[in-house]
Amino acid sequence: MRGFTWIFATMAAVAVGAFGVFALGGHSEAKRMRADLALYIDRGGIADLDHAQALGRRLLVSHQSDQGSEAALAFVDAVLAVDYGLDTVREARTALDRMGSQSDSDAAISAVAAAARALILLRAGDRDAAARLAAAAAASSSGTPHPLFALGRVRALNGDVVGGARALKAAIVRSPGFMVARVAWAETRLELGDAPAARTALEDVLAKTPSDLRARLLLDEAEQALGVVGSGTLAAACPPAQNRWPPAAIRSGCALARATRARRAGARVEALARAEEAASIVPAEPRLQARVAQALAQLGAVNRAAELLERSRRFAATETPAVAWATVAVALGRGHAPSPPAGPRPADPESRLLVARVALAAGGIGALVNALDGLGEAAVANDVDLRLLARLRHAEAAPAAIGGQDDPVYAYVDGLRARLDGNLSVAAGRMRKALSGHGDACRAAGEYVAMLRVLKLGVDPAAWNLLRAENTLCVNLQ
């Protein structure tokens, strides 16, 4: 019996020792995973956030009461929902619900959880509640950058881009390695028209996290605003799509970037196809929705633009620069003469074209000339539509490498020039070719009708078919 007792005692000791080693190993592995989770969140690119989400889920399978991982997963899901329009809100809410009020015992965990809650409220369209929660969390937290990041995103999408930039800058000062805040700050600089600062910040981010596709797309925006060509930034931002990767926000942004390039080159058919591609896959990310809407409106697809603009207003205030300028594009496309939004103009070529078009609609040739002078020679030289509008200053030769005399913007400008010269018969003929396919087609319709009345000619009802399909609420439709 004593022998058996000794054997059992030995086996028990071995088992306890093995369990201790196993538990220690499991604890060490969990510690490493938590460190990796924090690192991926700091880096903040879409691939990094995807890895962080997977790590958070794995940690919570093996450590169900891990409050820090619950808060981190909720924050990752909230960022994916706000910045990329992904359907991750439900998982974020579930993680926060599992935490309950226990996170109050740890200030850092509580701050991350509060930031996640604020972003979820923002994604739900409750911007006022999101602003209150983010402000309170930022004021009470002095160690983590997450609440300041949330406050910056909430303020920016509430229309206070300056305040949003200030909060994001504070998050960067608090944690210089928190790259997701650096990228968001660069976006606010683009919204405020400061392309050089955005470019510098994004190049710094990409030096440290070269796989950040959102940063690369924003860098492409900055470079296009600055007239940089041939950098390869867009190609690097847009890897071939496979197995639903990259996410729709990246794919839509890539299609939009190609659409705006094509429009500026005069390839209007390609531009519209790319813009429609962007619209067909754009997720619920309001800045991207508004920018796609603006591009569509400038290509004459005003009905589709108005739909996207309305969707963007669910998640962003009308004062948000991207939404405000898209609103102008839709109103102008419908034949109204809106004023430019107050405040700085976003740093992008599409807004430059809008400045010129608004000036022409509201103030005529004199206002257009002033607007073109303000935009500068380089901006005009790099945009076929601006070069065409510049012909109204005096009888300049038409730009080469566009769609020929049947290009609708070419025909529109020709018609306006002929009217200025008093040749209404030629002007009416040119306007007849400008009744669809560009942002001023509705205005061309008004000019066309006015000229036909003076010439005492009737209107062919078929002339409105394309315009009616593209722009049902055009004020000049008959």
Q: Which helices and strands appear, and what pairs or packs with what?
A:
Elements: H1 2-43, H2 46-62, H3 67-84, H4 89-99, H5 107-123, H6 127-140, H7 146-157, H8 161-174, H9 179-191, H10 195-208, H11 213-226, H12 233-237, H13 248-265, H14 268-281, H15 286-298, H16 302-312, H17 321-333, H18 349-375, H19 377-381, H20 384-390, H21 408-420, H22 424-432, H23 441-454, H24 465-470
Helix pairs in contact: 1-2, 2-3, 3-4, 3-5, 4-5, 5-6, 5-7, 6-7, 7-8, 7-9, 8-9, 9-10, 9-11, 10-11, 11-13, 13-14, 13-15, 14-15, 15-16, 15-17, 16-17, 17-18, 18-20, 21-22, 21-23, 22-23
Description:
The chain is an all-alpha fold and 478 residues long. The protein contains 24 helices and no strands. The protein has helices at residues 2-43, 46-62, 67-84, 89-99, 107-123, 127-140, 146-157, 161-174, 179-191, 195-208, 213-226, 233-237, 248-265, 268-281, 286-298, 302-312, 321-333, 349-375, 377-381, 384-390, 408-420, 424-432, 441-454, 465-470. Helix 3 runs antiparallel to helix 4 (89-99), helix 6 packs antiparallel against helix 7 and helix 8 packs antiparallel against helix 9 (179-191). The longest helix is centred in the N-terminal third of the chain and has 42 residues, at 2-43. The protein is elongated.
